[in-house]
Amino acid sequence: MQQAKNLGTNQVQLIRAEHGIEREESIFLADEVPVSLTFNGLSHAVLMATPSDLMELMLGFSLSEGIVDAPKQIYETSVIQHEQGYEVSAQISSERFAKLKERRRNLRGATGCGLCGVEALASSALQIPRVTRYPVTLKQILKGFEELTSRQPLNQLSGALHAAGWLSSEGLSAVFEDVGRHNALDKLIGWRALNQPTAQGAVLMTSRVSYELVQKCAQAQIGTLCAVSAPTSLATQLVIQSGMGLGVFARGSRISWIN
Predict the structure, then answer these.
(1) CA distance 176 to 151
(2) In 3D, which of 228, 258, 230 has the Cα closest to residue 242?
(3) Where exactly are the structural domains of the chain?
């Protein structure tokens, strides 16, 4: 199994102008590179991501997008660095690969099939699994977010990455960073599937809450999601449908819960 180098930032030189005085300084910028996800030789998606924890990213994406139901359905994974970016290849079970190809055929057919407006809207309705809300106290959440901030080394260097953290009764167990909030969450979901597959807890996010984050958490049977910013209206609808606990505006000493 090949492993990608654990990257995340690049150092560059720039000229800072301040009060009419120019001076050269060195700063770190977040890496954002194409990461191709390939299943059984079939290229499925290209993500713009931070090239770290790519094995977890592949597993988390596979689970949160419903490509596989469990890690055991992925037989082999490799990471290859190319000049243009990274390729993460996975060999999955023949049953799951057949379902993936069928899904891709349906998507291609729906794109240009000329569905009428009502049919198109009906086909776009989002389905979301039911989950059990994980009980977490305000004290636990605020302490978790405080620790989350201190455990983002790449963001401390560049100021341009999101983070997803796993909060359980034992505290903040893991933190993953990425330029994309969805990628950070997928990395966390992949880590949890490998290390704590049956553990219950809450996800802490340093971002707004879009419907994709809610859907990914529900698909992974994560019952509580907390974030520092606002949710979208569709995200709140899905939260209510799923039974998930959603805490937003987690800043300072407060948090707001979506009922």
Answers:
(1) 9
(2) 258
(3) 138-258
DSSP 109-134: HHHTS---HHHHHHHTPPP----PPP
No. of H helices and E strands in the chain?
8, 12
For residue 189, give the DSSP letter: H
pLDDT digits (tens, 9 = 90+) for 75-123: 999 999 998 999 999 999 999 999 999 888 765 544 444 445 554 445 4
DSSP one-letter string for 165-178: EEEETTEEEEEEEE
> What's the DSSP call for residue 82?
-
Catalytic machinery residues? 113
- Cα–Cα distances in angstroms (integers) from residue 120 to residues 108, 134, 139, 212, in the given order: 14, 35, 45, 20
CATH architecture designation of domain 138-258: 3-Layer(aba) Sandwich (3.40)
